[in-house]
Design brief:
This protein is of the alpha+beta class. 34% of the residues lie in helices and 18% in strands. The chain has one domain. It contains one helix and six strands, in the order H-E-E-E-E-E-E.
Length: 151
């Protein structure tokens, strides 16, 4: 008597394969989310560097720094997805640019401008936990993490 050659999978084999895929995806999702959050922070690094360069160019032309980022000041606007809010406390699109993730502009209150320097902020609640990621840059291009939302 000859046995039939079964070429398909049994339901049990399919269930095991699905369980393995589900387990592997559970392991990788947190790493993917952290990777995406770091990519958003990279956007902030680039825009803060660009903003600091614009401040230095303004200083070279006028001999002072300005807290007016939009028209009539630096004529600067953020590039990319613009997840972060950038700038100083004050009026929207003049002293700061809001991000897509709608971070409270009150977190920009630590920023400052003086005759011989500045500290500008970028802030964003990257992961939606209510704690914003806050970065700063000064006239020496030193970027600092004021509050780490990725930790």
């Amino acid at each position: 008597m000859k046995l039939k050659n079964n070429l398909g999978f049994t339901i049990f084999e399919l269930m095991i394969a699905i369980a393995i895929i589900a387990f592997l995806s559970i392991l990788t999702v947190p790493n993917l989310m952290k990777f995406l959050s770091k990519a958003k922070r990279t956007e902030a690094y680039v825009n803060l560097g660009s903003l600091a360069m614009a401040q230095k160019m303004h200083f070279a032309q006028t001999g002072k720094y300005t807290n007016i980022l939009g028209q009539g000041g630096l004529n600067w606007s953020p590039e990319g997805n613009n997840n972060y809010a950038y700038g100083f406390s004050g009026q929207q699109n003049i002293n700061y640019f809001p991000g897509k993730l709608q971070t409270d502009p009150g977190v920009l209150n630590g920023s400052s401008i003086k005759q011989n320097g500045f500290i500008m902020y970028a802030a964003c609640d990257i992961d939606g936990d209510g704690k914003p990621d806050i970065l700063s840059i000064d006239q020496n291009n030193e970027i600092r993490i004021i509050q780490d939302d990725l930790a």
